[in-house]
Write a structure and sequence with these properties.
This protein is of the alpha/beta class. It folds into three domains: 272 residues, Ribonuclease Z/Hydroxyacylglutathione hydrolase-like (Metallo-beta-lactamase, Chain A, 4-Layer Sandwich), CATH 3.60.15.10; 148 residues, Rossmann fold, CATH 3.40.50; 103 residues, Ubiquitin-like (UB roll), CATH 3.10.20.580. Helices cover 31% and strands 25% of the residues. Strand 11, helix 5 and strand 12 form a beta-alpha-beta unit. It is globular, with a radius of gyration of 28 Å.
């Protein structure tokens, strides 16, 4: 990086929706990190629990990281923190609810972190940066945008936002502060692109309440509402409507109970004292007096809703007359899992209400007219769309062009690409290491691409294991080759094929030099390559081949 330059480096969030959000701002040797999110795995990522950004650039420069600033408490902005903090132990700044949710997450990983709560309109100094926190409305409480004063000019990062004129908590987006940044002349705006394809304005969160009221008014049995555990506004509205219709509320699921308690303790959630009951109290309640709020709206296999749908939950069994509400957007890639749960619930007699058949969810992201409004409030010299796939970023860039920002001042970046401001000019300045790290369990190192490829081959074509006993000194074959397969063919039904494979291997091994046979690694490689070609030619199959050489 050039001395006296301001560099913008996205490490995630510019090639996907719903994950990996991580933005780096660097001036000389001082770095601040904005958000550290994860992404849930796509179908091909077999056995992967979640995905985090490759933050090796931050590890290489960890002494220069002044702070990690979190805009709000969603997993796609906080989920990578346990792994980042192990490698880069920097202080965290965020609003009270955001830090409350982060503390719970770090407790699971037994990580201690230096945390600093901040409030909207508060300003902090971090080396050459002065960061102001600006109130925005979103689908989670306590979301903020960032106004960052740098030696080269002002930078605004909107975080995730929408313009909600009637937010559940009454806290409006701070139009005045955004407009002041426009008046003071802003160098750069980075703005949420998630809903750039959608025209008009995003509906207010209070629209969901009206839908809840209609459902509660006509439902005679139990009502089960599934939503994200971090959506405190949605939980609050479900509780308020339950109270209105005389129903008791039961929260089911560790994450939703934990998040609700955090929000209650911090004053972000209001529940009448006698309304919140424990799951054990369910048996003593009439069906028309029950509202259960739980997780699992994305079809997660081990979630409460999934276990209810498949009849595996010990205390909640679906019966005729139950109403189940999936109050969340289907995240792309989860449609099939959600569809399975919906089918199971219908099959067990429930009336299922979900996004495609009712307005029981509204987005937390700004649509086109709100994005235009933000551009016109801030009036930046340069614009970088963030938080979206390439098409979202491209459409948002087109909106900015129509709002009067010159084409040469609009930059659509790739993850890892460096945008550098220096001496009144801006240019693309190469790339840093970036990408995705696959996490299986709590292993910090992640899952290698090769492991994923092996898992895909196992899933598609199975595995063939070759067992061979070799006398090391003489090179004589003392046992085998024996062939075992799993997920490739059913051995009892295909003895002829197994016999053919054994014969091919015996012929192949007999033709090898003694030097190869007595070197187990060379022998394994030869068996693997020969059998791979044989099975591809004979069966057009590509199983994972594992030779096991036993030397005596």
């Amino acid at each position: 990086m050039n001395p006296g330059a301001l560099s913008l480096i996205p490490l995630g969030g510019l090639e996907e929706v719903g994950g990996l959000n991580m933005m780096v701002l660097q001036y000389d040797d001082s770095i601040i990190v904005i958000d550290a999110g994860l992404m849930f795995p796509e179908e091909y990522m077999l056995g992967v629990d979640f995905v985090i950004p490759d933050f090796s650039y931050l590890v290489e420069n960890k002494r220069n990281v002044k702070a990690i600033i979190i805009t709000h408490g969603h997993e796609d902005h906080t989920g990578a923190l346990p792994f980042l903090l192990k490698a880069v132990p920097a202080p965290i700044y965020g609003t009270p609810l955001t830090l409350g949710l982060i503390k719970e997450k770090l407790r699971e990983y037994q990580i201690e972190a230096e945390m600093h709560p901040v409030r909207p309109r508060e300003t902090i100094s971090l080396g050459p940066f002065e960061v102001e926190f600006i109130r925005v409305t979103h689908s989670i409480v306590d979301g903020v945008a960032l106004g960052i004063n740098t030696p080269l000019g002002r930078v605004v990062h909107t975080g995730d936002f929408k313009v909600d004129p009637t937010p559940v908590d009454g806290e409006l987006l701070d139009f005045h502060r955004f407009a002041e940044y426009g008046e003071k002349k802003t160098l750069l705006l980075m703005s949420d692109s998630t809903n750039a394809e959608k025209g008009g304005f995003t509906f207010s969160e209070k629209e969901v309440r009206r839908a809840f009221e209609d459902i509660f008014a006509t439902s005679k049995g139990r009502i089960i509402i599934s939503t994200f555990s971090s959506n405190i506004h949605r939980i609050q509205q479900a509780i308020d409507v339950a109270v209105m219709f005389g129903r008791k509320v039961i929260l089911a699921g560790r994450s939703i109970v934990s998040n609700a308690q955090i929000a209650l303790d911090l004053g972000y959630l209001r529940i009448p004292r006698e309304t919140w009951l424990k799951l054990e109290d369910l048996k003593g309640l009439e069906d028309d007096k029950v509202a259960i709020i739980t997780t699992g709206s994305q079809g997660e296999p081990m979630s409460v809703l999934s276990r209810i749908a498949t009849g595996e939950h010990k205390q909640i069994k679906i019966k005729e007359g139950d109403t189940v509400i999936l109050s969340a957007k289907m995240i792309p890639g989860n449609e099939r899992s959600i569809g399975r749960i919906v089918n199971h619930l219908f099959r067990r007699g429930a009336n299922v209400i979900y996004e495609k058949v009712s307005e029981i969810h509204v987005s937390g992201h700004a649509s086109k007219e709100e994005l235009k409004l933000m551009l016109n409030l801030v009036r930046p010299r340069y614009f970088v769309p963030v938080h979206g796939e390439y098409r979202h970023l491209s459409i948002h860039a087109s909106l900015a062009l129509k709002q009067g920002i010159p084409k040469e001042n609009i930059f659509i970046l790739d993850n890892g690409e460096v945008l550098e401001f220096h001496e009144g000019e801006v240019h693309r300045a190469g790339k840093v290491d970036s990408g995705r790290v696959f996490i299986d369990g709590k292993v910090a190192g992640g899952v290698e691409e090769m492991v994923l490829r092996d898992r895909m081959r196992l899933a598609h074509d199975g595995v063939v294991i070759v067992l061979l006993g070799v006398e090391k000194l003489t090179g004589n074959i003392i046992s085998g080759p024996d062939v075992i397969s799993r997920g490739f063919i059913f051995e009892d039904a295909s003895p002829e094929l197994i016999a053919d494979v054994k014969e091919f291997l015996s012929t192949t091994i007999a033709a090898l030099d003694k030097e190869i046979i007595t070197d187990s690694s060379l022998l394994q490689a030869k068996i693997r390559s020969s059998l791979k070609k044989y099975l591809r030619n004979v069966l057009d199959r590509r199983p994972l081949i594992m030779p096991i050489i036993m030397e005596v």
